[in-house]
Fold this sequence. Notes:
The protein is of the alpha+beta class. It has helices at 12-25, 34-38, 42-46, 93-108, 122-130, and strands at 2-6, 51-57, 60-68, 76-84, 112-118, 134-141, 149-156.
Amino acid sequence: MIEIRRLGPDDWQILRTVRLAALSEAPYAFGSTYEREVAMTEADWRARRSTTFVGFDGTDPVGVAGAYTPADEPDVREVVGMWVQPGQRGGELADQLLTAVLAEVREDGVAAVRLWVSDANSHAAGFYRRYGFRPTGRRMPLRPGATVQADEYRLGLSRPR
Length: 161
C-alpha cells in the first residue's frame, strides 16, 4: 500500500533521494539536471521553496510532486517535480500525489495552478488534462540552453466566498 507524506525541511535526504532518481530516470521531463542537483548541499535541499509530497511503498520513496509560489504570479501555485517510479506507473500513485498537491493549493485560496510539460512528455500532458489543466499557448525552453520546449498548462480555481 502506498502512503503519501508531506515532507518538511528535516526530510531533505528523502527529497534528495527521490529527486535524483527522477532526474536520472526521466531527464527529459525536468527543468533541472541530475548533475546540478547531485552537487547541492544539505543547506540547498533544506532551503527549497516548494511544498513537497512523496509516495512511499513501505520505506521506499517511489514518487514525488510539489508546488511553490512563482515570483511572477503570487496568486498562483506552480506544480513542480512530478515523477512516479516506472514500476508504479499506471496505478494510483500519480493521482494520489497530484490530489495531495491540489488539496494543499486549494487551502491557500489561490486563483489558479500552473505547470509546464515538455514536448517529450505527451503522457504527462494527457494526465494533467484529465484534471482540467489546459494549455495556455505559452512556451519556453525546458531549461536554459535546451532545444526541448515546454508548454504551460493552467487550472483555474474557484475561490472560497
